[in-house]
Amino acid sequence: MTSFSGYLPYAFALIIAIPFLVLLRQFVFTYIKLKEQEIKLLSIKSNSENKTQSYERMTLFLERIKPSNLVQKFDKGLAVHEFIFLTEKSINEEFEYNSSQQLYLTKNSWKNIVDSKNAVIDLLHKTYEGFSSSPNLDEFKTVFIMNYMNSEDYISATIEDLRREILIIA
Fold first, then answer.
1. Alpha carbon of 25 to those of 22, 58, 110: distances in Å?
2. What is the pTM of this model?
3. What angle do CA 133, 136, 141 make, to 5 degrees?
4. Using alpha carbons only, how large is the chain's radius of gyration in Å?
5. How far is the C-alpha of 124 from the C-alpha of 131, rounded, in Å?
6. 54, 105 in Cβ contact below 8 A?
7. CA 150 from centre of chain
8. How far apart are CA 58 and CA 113, in angstroms?
9. Per-residue pLDDT reduced to its tens digit, 100-152
10. Neighbours of 48 (CB within 10 A)
11. H-assigned helices in 65-135
């Protein structure tokens, strides 16, 4: 019996330590699970911020390619064909700069943005082709804006679609 009494303090420490170790293990696993959930939540929040910024940037792009904003962009002393060239170049450069935003937009929104960009460029060329003689720049700009106003306002429709989508996301 004396040999058993020598182990009694160790047995007592083991009985006390086992529940403590089990509770410590549970605490560590719970802590790890909560941290994983926090990381997921932060990544979702970050992705949502990226989406929001993408929608903002593409809305700004669409506002910039509205004919009423395009006609104010370049020097009044340009020839019409120079204005068309510079405007088309400007639209394409800004579009290429923002093309990475398609990662955060829906396919439909991106398609609408591309269609709007192409429609503005087409309208530039069709307006120029509609003149029988060589117009001056002011006449061209006026007819360009009038042609846009008389057609479907596809840019505003695309912006409205972006607004609806961002409300769903946010």
1. 5, 50, 49
2. 0.71
3. 110
4. 32
5. 12
6. yes
7. 30
8. 8
9. 998 888 899 999 999 999 999 999 999 999 888 888 888 999 999 999 999 88
10. 13
11. 67-70, 80-98, 107-129
